[in-house]
Amino acid sequence: MRHKKPLPGILVILLDLLGIGAALGIFYLFTFVISLSDHQPLQNIVSNTTPASTAVIATPELDASAQNATQAPETTPSPVPGDFSATFASATLDTTNAVGNYVDDNLKIVISEHHTDKAVFFVADFWLRDIHSFQTAFARGRFKGGYAMPDEMASKANAILAISGDSCGSSTDGIVIRNGDLYRDSKSGDVCILYLDGTMESYYEADFDLDAAIARGAYQGWSFGPKLIDNGQIPSSYNSTSIIINDRAPRAAIGYYEPGHYCLVTVDGRQSGYSSGMNLDELSQAMIDLGCKDAYNLDGGQSVMMIFQGQLIGKPYKGGRVISDIIYLGELS
Predict the structure, then answer these.
(1) DSSP state for residue 235 in the 8-state scheme
(2) Is the N end or the C end of the chain the one with fewer CB atoms within 10 Å?
(3) In angstroms, rounded to a whole number, what is the distance separating the alpha carbons of residues 231 and 235?
């Protein structure tokens, strides 16, 4: 019986090094290449920068006869999409029951406290001069970046006003559009889209067309829901579970009045003697009573938090919890 000769020591060492190198290469591939691709947008839809003013190019002077022959009638320049300067200048905010307000050259915000028999809720009514003041942020600054407290994310984003988002990092499906970038294109439930022109529309899942939304200039897109207003009325049914529909709980919602004018709403809940919260019919009615033309339900329960200039508004259930994303208003870059 012939015995195999043992491999030379140097060859054994070389093979071990090759094995270690291969293992490290695979680790790098999955950790820094494949995993990083999960955080990148699938597509840029619209720019997330404020459009610069158009440069004026000097032209040679013409003599009087040529000037009269070539002079064109004056035209009114079309407003830049997402520029609401005309309405912003005349916008007024109701400070009744206000618990905070803020005004600068690009934002007008007033936060008011409201009460029903069973709930305490807060409404942040705001006007924008430019759509780019309306921002969103992920935990750790990237899609699927994990979780963080809403006030921590708001602080890092230098947010003037922030609210908990749609918990996009806790699901594997659902449209995700943030600051003009498409991160996920699979539908799951009702969808809310804020377009670059300032229009906000919520859609039943069966009615939503992603390609059409992209063509219109989708700037933000959320997938939690459900849709809260149907032709000015409480929906006859909701695309959600019976617990979410009927439970009185902490709630968060976004409402739309007209391009450049919106509201963010939080409802405190699950706190006996203070605020029980709202079910979906009650939340829908509250948004209708506020005068919203459209409204959309965001992540609720312990996730619900509103932060204004670094301070919590209201009493989050159990102090809130870590979440994946926020909606916020910030200064123009």
Answers:
(1) -
(2) N
(3) 8
Residue 208: closest CA among 186, 226, 231, 191: 191
How far is the C-alpha of 144 from the C-alpha of 146, rounded, in Å? 6
pTM of the model: 0.82
Tell me the residue type at 172.
T
Nearest in space to 292 (alpha carbons), one of 83, 124, 108, 97: 124
260: left (phi over 0), alpha (psi -120 to 50) or beta: left
Beta carbons of 298 and 252 less than 8 angstroms apart: yes
Q: Which segments within 38-190 are labelled E, that is strand?
A: 43-44, 98-103, 107-115, 120-128, 134-138, 161-164, 176-178, 181-184
Tens-level pLDDT at each residue, the chain (333 residues): 555 566 566 765 766 677 676 656 555 544 444 445 678 999 999 977 665 433 333 333 444 444 444 454 454 445 688 999 999 999 988 888 899 999 999 999 999 999 999 999 999 999 999 999 999 999 999 999 999 999 999 999 999 999 999 999 999 999 999 999 999 999 999 999 999 999 999 999 999 999 999 999 999 999 999 999 999 999 999 999 998 999 999 999 999 999 999 999 999 999 999 999 999 999 999 999 999 999 999 999 999 999 999 999 999 999 999 999 999 999 987
